[in-house]
Amino acid sequence: MTHPHSPEQISAFFTQHGVRDVECIFADISGYPRGKLMPASSFAAGGELRICQAIPMQAVTGEYSYNPVFPDSDPDVRMVPDYTTLTLAPWASVPRAVAVHDCLELNGELCQFAPRSTLKRVLADYAALGWHPVVAPEIEFYLTAANIDPALVLVPPAVRGGRAEVGSSAFSLNMLNELAPFWDEFRVALVTLGINADTWIHEVGPTQYEINLLHGNAVAVADQAFLFKYAAREIALKHGLNAVFMAKPIAGSAGSSMHLHISVVDDQGNNIFSLGDGTESPRFGHFLGGLQTFGPELMLMFAPNVNAYRRYVSGSQAPTNMEWGYDNRTTGLRVPASAPVARRVENRVAGADANPYLAIAASLAAGLAGLQQQISASAPLATNGYDAAHGLPRTLDAALEKCSTVRLPDKRWG
Questions:
Q1: Are strands 324-326 and 333-335 parallel, antiparallel or unpaired?
Q2: Rounded to the nearest 5 degrees, what angle is found at the Cα of 14, between the Cα atoms of 8 and 18?
Q3: How many CB atoms lie within 10 A of CB 374?
Q4: What CA–CA distance (Å, rounded) separates 118 from 355?
Q5: Which among 38, 166, 180, 350 counts the fewest CB atoms within 10 Å?
């Protein structure tokens, strides 16, 4: 997909589509879109945008505190567009564009509080070693009936037959065909946004769905996951629905995950998890070992809300530990059957409520620490992972306490 870059190209693009304004956005710590609406003419002319430094650290409630991590004065940061993300905003009622932005300090450095910055810093550590992560997310979510009272439970919407879906209809094509007006508009929106969706399925829960994104550069894929959630919510509302990315939105129904498939290639495009003869490289085990060692200490990145910990239930296909196994969906880390060129790890721990930038950054940072420290993985588990110990924090408080013990890599490791 070609995106306009120069002022002339951008102006022509805006004129062609009658664009009046541009949504200049970035993800806050919760993955929620924040930013400013800018006149299209000012955006095309390269007008500078600034925003207070603390905004990327806003919580899910919209609040943030002036604690010691912020300068007392809460200075500005610059919002700098990534022109590869500039496209039409498919949810807008009048022609509007949208672009994902980086938050930069006035001295040009990445704002340390912005989630996109965190992911970029981790990728820079990989690039310094001649390595480049490749990531593909699988995003699950529910479509529910409109809900105007947060004290009431979420319920499935009425579908074609006039009744709400009940029971479990995993991988049902009949159920996937329900709510067609939403899906038709949402599919067009993904194309407009340049989101490379692969397969679409109906998941286990009533009106629960999963859409897999194609593998690619970690920042580009995180941008797509961020815009995917934004578009789903906006377009669902247009159809009288809610797109819900809570990890466990409905008691007694399946939780929603964001599985992350991860591999790493070198400068020549070779998968570093495979040797020339197609067998596993030692680096593959070290990457797994890093995830096993540091993953539990990074649970706040995978499960950032109180509700998220209700998903980790034995027998639910949500993991309860960081065991790993070949094609074993009962473990936190699954190694899918694949050709050597596609050898990868599937991190099944992150919930749908996780910020994609931070969940990907945490996974990659843990794996990199394993590579640099040459941490050995445990033996692969061929049996039921739920029979092993519950190795993940069970509550948000426990995850916070675990996070306080995180061991940072030595500076010589980047």
A1: parallel
A2: 145
A3: 12
A4: 12
A5: 166
Structure tokens at 295: 């993953």
Strands 345-347 and 131-145: unpaired
Please name the fold of domain 127-413. Answer: Creatine Kinase; Chain A, domain 2 (3.30.590)
Domain-wise residue ranges, the chain: 7-113, 127-413
Report whether 199 contacts 211 (CB < 8 A): yes
Alpha-carbon torsion angle 64, 70, 72, 77, nearest 10? -90
Structure confidence by residue, pLDDT tens digits, 20-35: 999 999 999 999 999 9
The pTM (predicted TM-score) of the whole model is: 0.95
- For the chain, the distance separating the N- and C-terminal CA atoms, rounded to the nearest angstrom, is 34
Go through the chain and tell me how many residues it has.
414
Domain 7-113, second-level architecture? Roll (3.10)
Structure tokens at 151: 């004290």
pLDDT tens digits for range 34-58: 999 999 999 999 989 999 988 888 8
**What torsion, rounded to 10 degrees, do the Cα atoms 182, 186, 187, 189 define?**
150
φ and ψ at residue 97, rounded to 5 degrees? -110, 170
| Rounded distance between C-alpha atoms, residue 226 and residue 207, angstroms | 21
- Report the alpha-carbon distance of residue 282 to residue 386 in Å, rounded: 27
Helix (H, G, I), strand (E, B) or coil at 84: helix
Helix (H) or strand (E) holding 370: helix 356-373
